[in-house]
Amino acid sequence: MRLLQSLAARLDRGRPRSGLRPADLAITLAHESERERLTRDALLKLLSEYDLTPWLATTRVVIDETAVPHSHPVLTLHARHVTAPDLLLSTFVHENIHWLLRPKLGAVSKAMAELRNLYPEIAVAPPAGAGDRQSSYLHLIVNYLELVAMRKLAGHDRAGAVFDVWRKHHYTQLYEIVLGDEFLVASVVERNGLLLPG
Questions:
Q1: What 3-state DSSP class applies to 195?
Q2: Are strands 26-29 and 60-63 parallel, antiparallel or unpaired?
Q3: What are the angstrom distances between the C-alpha of 149 and each of 51, 82, 114, 132, 169?
């Protein structure tokens, strides 16, 4: 029960909406800086180039050049990927996936229990892990779904290039597990009904 409550605190700071369109997004700039404006423009371009409808789960986005990207309580992006659209796309999808998993907390909890048995020595401290054990197991699911989404959106080669960057930058062990044991992680995700539409 504590696990579900903790997951709810991490993921549930608002009710995700389905059937959103890019026009439904309200993008706010935290500092109105040039980099934030350029990032907003780059995000709008991505929203016009790709059908992101299956991965849109919240109407509010903040671009904050001083922030670490996060999903809750408001989806927040930084401004570091203004010239790397695939990295921006992947980050945006990743944070939306957290919202999309919120209604599936029971299944997420079961999948995390399976992943704990498979990977009892998971990394916790950044950059290898996600800050705590629970978040690291959660990110195995999120990162796998991010890989699936990026392959659908950008193709295998570009998705692979993005994940090559991520596995050297943040959640490094978690991205390595997803890439190295993809079929094992996929089986846990699929068995628990966590594949997302799209």
A1: coil
A2: parallel
A3: 11, 20, 22, 25, 20
Indicate the pTM of the whole model. 0.89
Question: In the numeric block, which tokens belong to residue 81?
Answer: 């990927």
CA 190, CA 6: separation in Å to the nearest integer? 23
Q: What's the token pair of residue 127?
A: 């950059």
Angle of CA points 84, 128, 104, to nearest 5°: 80
What's at 119, amino acid-wise?
Y
Distance CA 195, CA 192 (A): 8
CA-to-CA separations, 151 to 25, 145, 162, 182, in angstroms, rounded: 24, 10, 10, 13
Q: How confident is the model at residue 19 (pLDDT cuts 50, 70, 90)?
A: low
Nearest to 60 by CA among 45, 50, 51, 70: 70
Determine if residue 81 is left, alpha or beta; phi over 0 gives left, psi from -120 to 50 gives alpha, anything else beta. alpha
For the chain, the helix, strand and coil percentages under 3-state DSSP, each to the nearest 5: 60, 5, 35
Task: Judge whether residue 177 has pLDDT over 90.
Answer: yes
Query: Mind listing the pLDDT tens digit for each residue in 100-111?
Result: 999 999 999 999
